[in-house]
Queue: 2 jobs
Job 1
Amino acid sequence: MNNIEEFDVVIVGGGPAGSFAGIFSSERKRKTAIIDKNNQICKKLLLTGKGKCNLTNMNEINDEYLSKYKNGKFLINVFYQFSNQDLYEFFEKNGLKLKIDTGKRVYPESENAEDVVKTIRKMLDRNKVKLFLKEKVIDIENLKDEFKVITDKRILKSKKIVIATGGKSFPKTGSEGDGFIFAEKFGHKIIKPCPALCGIEIKEKFLKNWQGITLKNVKVSAFLSNKKIGEEFGEVLFTHYGVSGPAILNISGDISENFEKGEIKLIINFKPALNKEILDKRLQKEIKENQNKILKNFMKNLLPSGLIYEFLLLASLDPYKKVNQLTKQERNIIIEKLLNFQLTVKKPRPFYDSMVTRGGICVDEINPKTMESKIVNNIYFAGEVIDVDGKTGGYNLQMCFSTGYVAGINA
Ligand SMILES: Cc1cc2nc3c(=O)[nH]c(=O)nc-3n(C[C@H](O)[C@H](O)[C@H](O)COP(=O)(O)OP(=O)(O)OC[C@H]3O[C@@H](n4cnc5c(N)ncnc54)[C@H](O)[C@@H]3O)c2cc1C
C-alpha cells in the first residue's frame, strides 16, 4: 500500500461523458486517470445509432432544443459552455469527418461508431490520460483534502473525482447503476431510475396479430387517469410485446416514471392532421365514390390492411357490410376509433432493452456551471448518471459530451 498512485483527477467511467472529462482535465495539465470496468473505453457508444453513432443534433439550441430533455433547463449553462457546434468542430479538428443527416442528426461520415471511439482514444493518449481498464471501482472515500478510490485491483488517491458511470440501461455495457450508490453515499438524492427510450408492453392480446406493422405520421398520447403525461408525432411499430418505434421511444420515459402511479392508456390518433368534422366529410365523400364496396375493403383507404380485421372487431362493425348501408352512428364509431384508438400499458421494457435511464442524481444538488456537487466539494458528475435524459436524435450523447467537458474544465 506504500505505492499508492496519486492523481489530480480520477474519473470513474470511461464512456463518452467520462472520456470528455478526461480529455479536458488533462488539457489543463491535471494528472488524470480514467477507470472503467470494460477492456476498452466507450463500449456503449459502439452500439449507438445502430453502430453508426448519432453523436449530436445540429438544430439550434433554444427552448425547443432544451424541451427534448427531462430537466433541459439544467443544460442551459452547460450548452453555453460547450454546444453542438463546439462538439462538431472538436471532432472535425481532430480528424473525424462528420455529416449532417435528416432531422439534423450528426454521424461520422464513415457511419462507423468505431471511428468516434478511435478519435476519443487518440485524444486521451495524446494527453497522457492514464487508463485503468478491466477494473471496477468498488468504493470512494472522502479523506477531507483528497479521495481514496478503491478498485478491485488497487487503491488510488485523487484531489478530485468525476463520477461518469452512466445509468442502468444496457447493463452489459458496464452501466449497472454504481454511480448512484457512490453519490448516495455522499449524501446525494437519487431520483428513482427507470427505463427510457424503450418499447412499451401492451395488455391487449390482439396486438400480437399486428406484429411487424409500422404506422407513419400518427400521434400517440399517454394518459394517467385523465392527465396527459406525454405526446409524440411520428412512427409507431407493433412488436411481439406491444409497441415501439420513434414516437413510442420518445414518450417511454414519461410512461416509465408514472408507471407505478396507476393505469396508463395509450391513445393512437391514426389521422392527426384531421379533426372529426373533416374526417367525416372525407368519409362521406369516399363512401359515395365506393358505394358497393364492403367495409373491410373500404377501410384500406384509411388504415394498413393488417390492422383492419381487429379494428372492425373492436368497433363491433360487420366487415362484410356494404359501405352505403353504414349508419351515421356507425360512421361515428369509425371516426372515434381512428382518432382515439386506445391501448393499455402493461409495463415498459426492462433496463436491458432500454437505450437510456430516466432518473439519477438530482440536478438541484449539482452546480450546472461546473458540474460540481453542491454537497461535497471536489466531486463532479457527468453524463447519464445525472437525472437528465433526452429524446432520440443525438440529444443524449450531446448532453454526455457537454457535461463531460464542463466537469473536465472545472475538476
Ligand atoms: C443501443 C443504444 C443506442 C443508442 N444510440 C444513441 C444515439 O444514436 N445517440 C445518442 O445520443 N445516444 C444514444 N444512446 C444513448 C447513449 O449511448 C448514452 O446516453 C451514453 O452512452 C451515456 O454515456 P455515459 O458516459 O454517461 O455512460 P456510459 O456510456 O454508460 O459509460 C459509463 C461507463 O462507466 C463504466 N462504469 C460504471 N460503473 C463503473 C465502476 N464501478 N467502475 C468502473 N467503471 C464503471 C461502465 O463500464 C461504462 O463504460 C444509445 C444507447 C443504446 C444502449
Job 2
Amino acid sequence: MIRVNKIICNSKFCDCMQEIAECEKERVFCGHDIEHLLSVARIMQIIAHENKMEIDKEIIYAAALLHDIGRARAYRFGTDHAEDSAEIARRVLADCDFNNPEADEIVYAILHHNDSGQPNELCALLRKADKLSRNCFCCPASCRCKWSDDKKNKGVTV
Ligand SMILES: [Fe+2]
Ligand SMILES: [Fe+2]
C-alpha cells in the first residue's frame, strides 16, 4: 500500500482536503472528510472480498480516497464535483506512481460515480460503497437532504 500512503501525504490531496473542511464547516448534511473516504474504501474492500472480485486493493483505496477530492472547487464554482475530482485525481495519481492504465480505470470510476450511465466494475463498486457509507437511517438532517427517499441508505448491511 505504498502508493496509497503516498496519496494521503500528497500535497494536492492534503490541500484539497483542507479546502473541503473549510467549505463544510457549517454543513448540516454529511461531509466529505477522511472518515467518509476511508469508510468507502473499507466497504469497497469488503464487497470485493465477499464477491471474490479481482480488484487490486491499491486501486480500490485510490478510487475511494480521490472520488470526492474536487468537492471544494464544486462548492466554490458550482461545477460538477465528479468532473473536478477526476481531473485532480489524474494529477495526484501521476504523482503517486500509478501507471496510465491504472489511472484511466480509477479516473473513469470517479468521473461516473454519480451517473446513471453504464459503470465499469470499479465504478459500480465505488457507487455502491459511497451510498452504504452514509448513515441516512439516523441522520438528523435527513428530512432536509436533497437525496430522494429511494437513494437514502436505510440499513447497515453490506
Ligand atoms: Fe461524490
Ligand atoms: Fe462520496
